[in-house]
Design goal:
Strand order of the largest sheet: 1-2
Order of helices and strands: EEHHHHHHHHHHHHHHH
Mean pLDDT: 85
Structural class: mainly alpha
CATH architecture: Up-down Bundle
Number of helices: 15
CATH topology: Na+/H+ antiporter like fold
Number of domains: 1
Low-confidence stretches: 181-195
Amino acid sequence: MNWRRFRIGQQEIHTLTALATFAIGGAGGALATLAGLPLPMLLGSVLAVGVAAWLGLRPGGRDPGVPMGLRLFFVPIIGVSIGTAFTPQVLAEALNWWPTLLAAFVYIPLAHYVGYWGYRVMGGLDPCTAYYSAVPGGLLEVIMMGEEAGADPRMLTILQFMRLILCIMLVPVGFQLFEGMAVGSSAGASLAAPGATLGPMDVAVLAAAGVIGFFAGRQLNMPAGIITGPILVSGIVHLAGLTAAAPPDWSIQLTQLIIGTTLGTRFVGVKTRLLARALRLAFVNIIFTLILAICAALLLSGAVGEIPEAVVLAFAPGGLAEMSLIAVSLQISVIYVTSHHILRIVLSVAVARAFAGRIPPGPNLPGGAA
């Protein structure tokens, strides 16, 4: 085996480039930590690697790049962490969540509809590209659906990733600005339950929950199965009393670094003009959806017995893994947030499919819009 490069699936990995890319992400995380940002390893690595990719830096003589499959090994850690919050008391409280769960059936179509017209009017995008770019969830499924329908794959992909990246940057920073103090990991918050110790048996149980949940989620075709499967299995083992421990904080920090660095590499090859246009459009769209989330929080937080920040995070249109990671790191009603994001993904894809027949073919299909 050649240590300088190897292949994972269809992706060829250059070892020095991958190590250098992670080093850039780690340096960004360290600077974000010194700056007192929330989720510093996540936000810092996204910014550092994203800027390096945009500037055309070539660590190891190649564009920034990391094994995309590496994310699959770390995202289940988030699921296992979320599962530690399963208690009989929390499950009993879930019966009170119906107002915001029901509100999602209004929020998703409204956010999609307004986002669609925003991309059409402000961005001049063709109907197909605007339609799939505005879907507020189910990133990978939506990109595949859009490409099959003839949407512009580059603009669709960058707008969907901008939605996710801007959300994970704006939400925790916004919380910190409004609260006037450090929150979550930037304030030294710990994920472990008070008094819980992590012994060899706990490590074995948590590892088994992650592995079994990972394969169960994929086998059962669960929404975002690589995280929802571990959530379910971890919740079962904690409710059964097999362990009271949580994954150590360093594993959450490492997961932040992996996810942030992976997202940052999405900026490779993106021209400044296209990036500026997509950033402007995505920023306006994400601000509108966050305003909707804030309205939902002001109206419904009391009805569901959750703090407003939890409702905002539950409705924020980021990725399930990323939003769950923010909830874990900021210690905000993690099961409440995660359950709403699972519903968001299912509804987003369902609504997109339901009305897709009304959208003309995109420019990448014969007979599509020019």
